[in-house]
Amino acid sequence: MNFKWLGPVALLAALFVGDQIRINRPGHKYRLTVEADTPEGAKSAFGVLSVHPDRGYSRQGHTATKGDAVFVDLGGGRNLVALLAHIDKTVDLDGINYVALRAYKAAGRNPSFNEMSRMTGVVAVTGALIPVLVTFADPNDPSTARNVAPDDLEALLGKGFRLHGITAEVVPNGFWPLDFGGPLGEPVTRGIEAKLKWLNGADNSAAVAIKAAGLPAALSIDAKEAFTRK
């Protein structure tokens, strides 16, 4: 066996892997927490999202987020889901990329995008920064989705339900892509497909949910990306 090429091949492999990590690692991660008051007390859930700028050589990509919508079990069969979407005439799938950045700016911190990974502390997500909120009368049926106004949960969920608040907090990137938890760093949160099982289907059930909720979706969007981004 000729070993003279082993060193150069190993070096090229290391350079390739390192470059792929540089291109694909998150610019920053943030924890999005949704808390609601219910007749049974406060209920909350969170999801860690990773935000990835375009570092490719073509520069023809765009900033992207990976993670899942945040599903809050409110008890008594009720739920509240913060989608990975906003409304800007139609469903906007890009706004979630900048929720943490804009929330820190609104709190007076004013970081640049490249400084986000160094931010600390919890900031409120309010007003237009709040993602689209929906509820499912039956989580197993996408056609039961309804849009929930952040300032009037009682209209759909009943007396005693209100949005306590939504917050964002930058968390360390960790040793990506080995961020499996613990000292390696918090991984991106997954689990929405276990709660909304129809997301795993081959049909376009996500579009059914978006339509049922009365959201003005453009025909060109992938409705599933309002629930999960890989």
> Which strand order spans the largest sheet, edge to edge or round the barrel?
8-11-1-2-3-12
Helical amount among residues, as a percent range? Answer: 10-25%
Give the DSSP E fraction (strand runs of 2 or more residues).
25-35%
Domain tally:
1
- What is the string of helix and strand elements? HEEEEEEEHEEEHEHHE
- Span from first to last CA? 41 Å
Question: Segments where pLDDT lies below 50 for 5+ residues?
Answer: none
Whole-angstrom Rg: 20 Å
Structural class: alpha+beta
Kindly state the mean pLDDT as a whole number?
A: 90
Brief summary:
The chain contains 5 helices and 12 strands. The protein is of the alpha+beta class and 230 residues long.
Structural account:
With about 230 residues, this protein is an alpha+beta fold. It has one domain. Helix content is about 20%, strand content about 30%. The chain is built from five helices and twelve strands. It has helices at about 5-25, 100-105, 155, 190-195, 205-210, and strands at about 30-40, 40-50, 65-70, 70-75, 80, 85-90, 90, 120-125, 135, 145, 160-170, 230. The strands form three sheets. Strands 8-11-1-2-3-12 form a six-stranded antiparallel sheet, covered by helices on one side. Strands 4-5-9-10 form a four-stranded antiparallel sheet, covered by helices on one side. It is globular.
List keywords for this structure.
230 residues; alpha+beta; six-stranded antiparallel β-sheet; four-stranded antiparallel β-sheet; 12 strands; globular
Give me the secondary-structure topology.
Layout: H1 6-24, E1 28-38, E2 41-52, E3 64-68, E4 70-75, E5 78-82, E6 86-88, E7 90-92, H2 99-106, E8 122-124, E9 133-136, E10 145-147, H3 154-157, E11 162-171, H4 192-195, H5 205-212, E12 228-229
Antiparallel strand pairs: 1-2, 1-11, 2-3, 3-12, 4-5, 5-9, 6-7, 8-11, 9-10
